[in-house]
Specification:
Length: 210
Amino acid sequence: MASPPKLSNVEKTALVISLALAGVFLEIAMFWLGIGRARRFANAGRRFERRLSARRATILVLGDSTGVGVGATRPEESLAGLFAADYPDADIINVAVSGTRVADAITQARRCFEAGLSFDLALLHVGGIDVIADTPLPRLADNCDILMRELGQLAVRTLGWGPRTSGSRRCFRGPMPGSWRLAPAPSRRSSRPLPSATTSSSSTSRRSRT
């Protein structure tokens, strides 16, 4: 049986380059397939809202696709929908938009304030897009501070979901030191984020803008 012909150094180099290029093209194809799937998920996402005339608590949902409920089979199975199930007497307004960054969430909060709205609880879902887009850390820190001030004037309390660990994922260039600003500080777990709002309105404790 004849042995296979040996490749010259030039042929070996050409083979390695061809395999490397094939791998690159495969990665690009998989990336765009993932983008297309994400867009389909985003287009299928439907925000959960529930407006009640007789209410004992008011909840604002703002931020990115997590607040929209992208990936949930039904709006009722999104985080906003699950909150509605836990608080059947709560009025829920949802202004979340897929792709929102912290700077965009500031605009969402300001529009609610300018419309004369106020809430017992704000559910904030934001930060992941800033991590992926590598928003400059000084700008991100400033935007987080502004957003917290806006929400302090809009709601009695804010409950935030942020990318606590996203900045340390291998797909990013090292840990993102500002990701801690996008998540609540560690604290004792509370099973009822609205302990008083379900029994009486606490709107008098909100601060007015100066």
